Amino acid sequence: MRLRFKSVLVFIFILIIACATVGIGYLFYNEVVDRSNVVVDGDLTINFINGDKFDLNGDATIAFSVTNNSDEQRYYYIQLSDVYANGVNYELTSSDNLDVSNTLKSDIIYNQVAINSNETINYTLNFKSANNENYSGVIRIGLRTNEENSFADVILTNNNISSAPLTSFGESATLDEGLLESQDDLGVAYYFRGAVTNNNVSFAGYNWKIVKINGDGSVKLVLNGIIDELSSYYENSSSFNESNIKSVLESWYDTNLVDYSSYIAYYKYCNDTVLEQNGTNYTSYSRIVTNKIPTFVCLGYSENGKIGLLTADEVVMAGGSMDANNNFYLYNSGIETAYYTMTNARVYNEQFYPFLVDTDGSLEYNTSGTLVRGVRPVINIIKTAKVTGSGTVEDPYQIIMS
Q1: What is the reported pTM?
Q2: Residue 142 CB-half CA count within 13 A
Q3: Which domains does the chain have, with CATH numbers?
Q4: pLDDT tens digit sequence for 258-312
Q5: Is the pLDDT of residue 2 over 60?
Q6: In sequence order, what are the residues at sequence separation of 6 or more whose Cβ sits closer than 8 angstroms to the Cβ of residue 4?
Q7: How would residue 10 be classed by pLDDT, with cut points 50, 70 and 90?
Q8: CB atoms < 10 A from the CB of 257, how many?
Q9: 98-107 contacts: CB < 8 A, separation 24 or more?
Q10: CA triplet 195, 189, 175: central angle to 5 degrees?
């Protein structure tokens, strides 16, 4: 009997040593213990210290690191996938001062992380579970090449992404609410809101503001001001395609942007021309004024082209409202005339009333489209464009001309 008991002890001891050697992990009082997994992707070595898969409950912490073994700067992405979770939040911190917090879900945390030659960046991923429920998922990290360093990639790299605004839509956003995630007709979109200061672009000799990254990876810009020529919106039709303002925009494009047309995407511009049953309000009026639920998904008709205007939805999502707002990025004290959006609000006595942005930054809908007002162009930069700069006023993004 003693010999058999010793054999069992020896077997258990050998099993423990073997588990430690091959990196088999386990949970002890919900603490993640070594389950290491080292992955080599080109010049990157990713050490998943606790494994690339997690299956946990309650609060927990896991760690990983990324090492660049090359002599040049490299880029990589960090992604959470196959996530099953409810009521769980995470915070990802790193040795190079990254700090991202969000609800645990399948998502790209960072699309384009830069790492210097022979550098190692250490990460800690903390989970907070409100109800001690089970949650699971996979951490994916992979190399991205410099050729993938598109305009959208750079914007995503330079900004932390939030899933919800600090203020409700319909309220004026007067603080820097950063870059937020949403949806448009083409997929996942990212938009700036509030008093952001790092969405500046210098292009074609003009200063622009980034409105959003479109779902297809192109980038929407709005001129940081209005053009010299004023225009009425329409004569006999509420359609942007038949409007006076479209002719003014296209003329301005031909004079100022045609030489840069290879960098400007042929894109869909949303024009709300759908009336409600009362025959007075457009559906956009209820959406924006009454219900305060703006969207990037076009619920009206769209006009394809290389130049257009902001929609009222885009103004609201940028931080505008029916109240004055001098503290969001669309406000410019140099704009001394209200300017039209592409969104219709109401029709009365056979006159159409589009939404406008007034000189104090507020949205209004009491101006007939027959009156002469400002024109503020919008364009979309192609998704393959490369840029330099950081987006600040002092160092705006600039398109690399090939």
Answers
A1: 0.66
A2: 9
A3: 19-149 (2.60.120), 176-399 (no CATH)
A4: 999 999 999 999 998 888 888 899 999 999 999 999 999 998 888 889 999 999 9
A5: no
A6: none
A7: very low
A8: 19
A9: 98/123, 99/160, 100/160, 100/161, 102/161, 102/162, 102/163, 103/163, 104/80, 104/135, 104/137, 105/80, 106/80, 106/81, 106/82, 106/137, 107/79, 107/80, 107/83
A10: 15
Neighbours of 337 (CB within 10 A): 14
- Kindly report, residue by residue over 213-242, the tens digit of the pLDDT: 999 889 999 999 999 999 999 977 778 988
Residue 145 has a pLDDT of 56
Q: How far apart are CA 383 and CA 365, in angstroms?
A: 34
Which one, of 276, 313, 273, 309, lies nearest residue 292 by Cα?
Answer: 313
- The pLDDT confidence band at residue 186, using thresholds 50, 70 and 90, is confident
The residue behind tokens 């003693």 is 2
- pLDDT for 329: 98
Q: What are phi and psi of 154, to 5 degrees?
A: -65, -40
Question: H/E/C letters for each residue in the chain?
Answer: CHHHHHHHHHHHHHHHHHHHHHCCCCEECCEECCCCEEEEECCEEEEECCCCEEEEECCEEEEEEEEECCCCCEEEEEEEEEEECCCEEEEEEECCCCEEEEECCCEEEEEEEEECCCCEEEEEEEEEECCCCEEEEEEEEEEECHHHCCHHHHHHHCCCEECCCCCCCCCCCCCEEEEEEEEECCEEEEEEEECCCCCEEEECCEEEEEEEECCCCCEEEEECCCCCCCECCCCCCCCHHHCHHHHHHHHHHHHHCHHHHHHECCEEEEECCCECCCCCEEHHHHHHHHCCCCCECCCCEEEEECCECCCHHHHHHHCCCCCCCCCCCCCCCCCCCCEEEEEEEEEECCEEEEEEECCCCCEECCCCCCCCEECCCEEEECCCCCEECCCCCCCCEEECCC
Separation in Å, CA 263 to CA 306, 361, 380: 10, 30, 8
